[in-house]
Amino acid sequence: MENDDGISFLFYLQRIYPDEWSNFLERTNDTKDLKEKMDLVRQWVSYRGQTLFRTVRGMMYYKQALELQCFLDMAEDREIFDGYRPADIHHREDLPFAPLSKAVADMKFTYVVSCQVYGAQRKSGEPRDRSCYLNILNLLLKYPSLRVAYIDEREETVKGELEKVYYSVLVKGGDKLDEEIYRIKLPGRPTDIGEGKPENQNHAIIFTRGEALQTIDMNQDNYIEEAFKMRNLLEELQKSHRGDRKPTILGLREHIFTGSVSSLAWFMSNQETSFVTIGQRILASPLRVRFHYGHPDVFDRIFHLTRGGISKASKIINLSEDIFSGFNSTLRGGFVTHHEYIQVGKGRDVGMNQISQFEAKVANGNGEQTLSRDVYRLGRRFDFYRMLSFYFTTVGFYFSSMATVLTVYVFLYGRLYLVLSGLEKAVLEDPSIHQSKALEAALATQSVFQLGLLLVLPMVMEIGLERGFRTALGDFIIMQLQLASVFFTFQLGTKAHYFGRTILHGGAKYRATGRGFVVFHAKFADNYRFYSRSHFVKGLELMVLLIVYQVYGNAYRSSNLYLFVTFSMWFLVASWLFAPFIFNPSGFEWQKTVEDWTDWKRWMGNHGGIGIQPDRSWESWWDSEQEHLKYTDIRGRVLEILLACRFLIYQYGIVYHLNIAHHSKSVLVYGLSWLVMATVLVVLKMVSIGRRSFGTDFQLMFRILKGLLFLGFVSVMTVLFVVCGLTISDVFAGALGFLPTGWAFLLIGQACKPLLKYIGFWDSIKELARAYEYVMGILIFSPIVILSWFPFVSEFQTRLLFNQAFSRGLQISMILAGKKEKTS
């Protein structure tokens, strides 16, 4: 499988792990069978990605450890002194204790992989599906203790009619094929009534056995030395805590194995490591508010099977299904602990878009948690201090992130009102305002939160505890040089946007992030689609606010704290607008930039409609971005309209500062500004009608109409310049005032879509939206074009993104350029 540059996963991994590839070639040098060699190469690649093959191999270390421990428990001293090799047990049945060791291990350990689509892949004739089925079948044949649970869909005759019937099926490896063990009829398709991932767990949990159950994700790994510790961990279930309460969930730390190449992967690795170590350690004790945050926790199986299972699966509200099992366990008298003497490998998202989708999914999930009855019940039943700990370590973190962003808006809109109303000058003339150091200090403190510096503090503490504070300080400095603050400031916007939208409208949905490799270039259109509403629109709004304040304000710039606050806000704007491109491989390479521009123009110009995907047409994407308004109630629509009215403040304030107004404070000036807006909207309506009426057969008439409109515009502007005293500065100021008003019309129109469709004005709103998207796209793309002119910018960005790889001498530039070495 290759990307657009002709780079395959194998080529990429050969460059990332050159020593391991050389060792692999040395091991397989004697292999003559081509098919066997290809299978070995596929295994080598799979062991270095976030694949099911790697996860199954890691989990099967548990059985090897059990067999060895069983041998050591049953063998005499003589057998132990003779030595033990795991390979002997698998290949020589005549060894002492071999059958007994395997039998005991099989009784104590079973690994069930819940694969919903296994049945569909088994029946499919598509080469890709067939390959996936055969790969899973090979795993079943290779590991006898492995089981696969899947949902089987069949058509059966029920009461004389053909109906679809669903079964939950468990299979194991047999004689070159899979053998069915159990088949349980289901009342319907589980994913129709619940979220896919938790339902996938719930239908398979009945096939597990024993007293302990460990949940493992498909992007995890395990190590043989950790497998030996599992029986020590299981003994923790027998320990009593706080009286006679025994643990119901045993938390484990994780080893993040994906932080070795790119700076983004390193940031996420450090962030995740700090959470699964120092974070969860403190949550468990002394705060006692640790829950289940995903994998690889070990559950008291009997406790949870009799109390609703390990996942809640109601659609939307249980989007973050993992934490609800922790809520449920705590509400029903369970106890959660955390243990750091055992760990499991974990892969994290490594690309900017993958990370942002993951953060968006978690923010959506926390928004739904805020609205859930579980959080309400826990808040009511905890004591005051435990309730505060619970709040600030779950939904409170995201609420605080949203409040941080809202503080910036409140501050800037407040200053905008003071500037445009003329009150700021009077306020600044008051001598007492210059002694307001307390307010400035508070704003400066808020700016530290805004820059995301406190998000780095847990990482520094954890690195300091494990590897020394000198190393922690060095890593912190390197992270800042690699623009970690830009990354975390950008993610602050992701959290605030998706959490706020979920609170306002609901409708959170699962986002598949994928587990791809890191060096693939994301197109400008892809970045624009994903970040337009969450970052670009908000970043441009804050930029306009700052520009208006700089132009019309008379700030006391002698204050250092004030300058720091202003700098932090410009930093926020720059991060939200350009972080996706800074952290995008080959983001400033000229050829890629040209291709991105062509692709974006094609996407903007394509028509939408039924069956057209959002990544194919701007119209389809624009419709999908309003999907949350389809399901919101009247309260949500009213709030959307009220929030959109903030954009009307610009026009109201700026028109009185235009030179053409001649310092008049009459309401007539404001009325004339609305006449200008009405004229612009009428012209847009005429263009829309003309494009629709004349079509392709009357292009000459349409061009004549556009020419007449242009001549009319030039005539009006000439009269305004010559007669009314319009100036060039008034033109730019008018743009700052009227463009936000047009955006307010768009937002209000989207909230009132049914009404506008009824009166026939929706097409005009769509054309207005397309014009705004073009303007935003050009504003964001222009700096990228300018920087792409200079080759050293692309080289600097590559070094910034892949510093860890360069320090190991890897050929990242060759990978990015797509230049494969010639092989004989």
TrEMBL record:
Domain Glycosyl transferase, first and last residues per copy: 35-639
Cellular component GO terms held in the UniProt record: 1,3-beta-D-glucan synthase complex; plasma membrane
TM spans (from-to): 390-412, 561-583, 638-655, 667-687, 708-728, 734-752, 772-792
Keyword Transmembrane helix on entry: yes
One BP term from GO: (1->3)-beta-D-glucan biosynthetic process
Keywords: Membrane, Transmembrane, Transmembrane helix
Entry annotated with the keyword Lipid biosynthesis: no
Record GO terms (molecular function): 1,3-beta-D-glucan synthase activity
Protein name: Callose synthase
Native organism: Thalictrum thalictroides
